[in-house]
Amino acid sequence: MAGTLLRTCHGIAVMCLVLLVGFGSATAHSRSTDDFKTAAIKVAFVYNFAKFTTWPPDRFRSPSEPMRFCVQRGDLDPEALRALEQKQVGDRLVRIETVDPGAAIGTCHILFASAFQSEPSLRALLVAATLNGVLVVSDMPGFAVLGGHIGLVEDSNRLRFQVNLEAALKTGLKLSSKFLQLAEIVGPVTQ
Q1: pLDDT in tens, 8-57
Q2: What is the pLDDT of residues 127-156, one digit of tens each?
């Protein structure tokens, strides 16, 4: 009897362990699926931002130069970025490039960056973007208010965007009025 009870308890313990491991991996898979979906939505937003932005003519070396979409290393799921392969913005093919934080961005047309190590690194990036005509998009909280061009904001499980029009215009970029009608326009915080 004791042997049967021990085997039953052992069998239940093994079954519970299998269920817990299965549940844990399903939760991890679900979390990674959610992360991928969020990254794919952000990629789609940035792609559409490009479609409603006009760069100064001298920003491209030739009519066939691709639109360079740069992403800071580790900021967006590489699988989500693959959705942009073979896409076009106007007549230009989209080219995805990964850059390290703090790297030169002069060859980029759009940069997506999530994190900045310090306020001075953010300021330096925005100065470089202004000098080089780079549209900078981030999901960092308060990004557009701090002087970034377009900030992605999560609100009640929805993604919306803020535009710092003053900062974008300093860069020489023109944003479509249709695009701006969908945005929340923000500016720098005055002190």
Answers
A1: 333 333 333 222 233 233 333 344 677 888 889 999 999 999 999 999 98
A2: 999 999 999 999 999 999 989 999 999 888
Q: How far is CA 184 from CA 41, 123, 145, 162, 176, in A?
A: 18, 22, 11, 5, 14
CA nearest neighbour of 173 among 41, 67, 62: 67
**Would you place residue 187 in the very low, low, confident or very high pLDDT band (cuts 50, 70, 90)?**
confident
Residue 47: φ, ψ to 5°: -60, -45
> d(Cα 47, Cα 78) in Å, to the nearest integer?
15
CA separation for the pair 110, 132 (Å, rounded): 11
Say whether 190 sits in a helix, a strand or coil: coil
Query: What whole-number distance in Å separates Cα of residue 149 and Cα of residue 132?
Result: 14
Residue 71's identity, in one-letter code, is: V
Q: What is the pTM of this model?
A: 0.79
Of 22, 40, 42, the C-alpha closest to 30 is 22
